[in-house]
Amino acid sequence: MNQEVVRVVLASKRDVWRSPDLFDLVEGYFDGSLHTLDFLAALDASLRRVRDSQLLLHLALQRLREGEGDVQEPGAAPAADRYAHALGELRRFKAAGDQFTPEFFAAFQAVYREHLAMLGKLRQRKRRLDGRIRSVRAWRRVSGVVFVATFAALLVCSVVAAAIAAPPVATALAAAASLPVGSVGKWVDSLLKQYQDALHGHKEVVSAMQVGTFIAIEDLDAVRVLVDRLEVQVGSMVDCIELAECGEEAVRLGIEEVKKKLEVFMKGVDDLGEQADRCSRDIRRARTVVLQRIINPPN
């Protein structure tokens, strides 16, 4: 009549799968993933503005290509005018400013900290589940031993009672031995197994969320690296533009530098866009896996 055994058996009679603690954890995971998707949508909007600013650089270079060559085409603008127009486009790029504002980085840090906190909660929950699973396994072994020992003790006592010629005692013990003690043992073991299966189901959900959170953190790390790299590239372009504003000869030198850096700048924008898309896909895939674990719990 161990009260701990009674508590475990009674706990397994309710629907353990619908655990309030697990529900709160799942709810927090999905809220965090939605916040991350919102942040990535904001990042995509910033990248669209960056790509629009790229057009200004292309227009500046196109101005310079007009009339280039030994023979100037009829109607082409003089070189001085072309440089002036190109400088105007470069100044528009500079005036567009940095698309990655302090608010953008504050949103990034908030999302990143949310994922780190969720990862800590999931690790703690998984350790608790591992401890419960080990306890249930131990109780299943103990309950099996207890019921087998009980049945054997009844048989031994009935034989002893018969040997000492105590018919009433022997009759009572024989009746007790005829009770379905083995069936009761199987019933208790089935309840403990249901509880163990539910705990394994919880662990599968937690593991899926843990993997998804870890992947999201790695993706966000890659996003931050690419954003920092792109910021450096934008700053370098602005430096070239500031150089071009120092005089007519400086315009030519500054624009030549812009030409050299434009391809790297465009690749940085494309890399960041691809990483943001990959992060969005990973998050949606992880949400789907977690939902499948919840919809299809163990029997």
Automatic annotation (TrEMBL):
Record's keyword terms, sorted: Membrane, Transmembrane, Transmembrane helix
Annotated TM spans: 142-164
Superkingdom, taxonomy of origin: Eukaryota
Entry keyword annotation includes Transport: no
InterPro entries: DUF677
Major localization class: membrane
A single Gene Ontology CC term: membrane
Intracellular or extracellular location(s): Membrane
Claim: Transport is one of the keywords in the record: no
Family: Belongs to the UPF0496 family.
PANTHER family: UPF0496 PROTEIN 3-RELATED, UPF0496 PROTEIN 5-RELATED
The name this protein goes by in its record: Uncharacterized protein
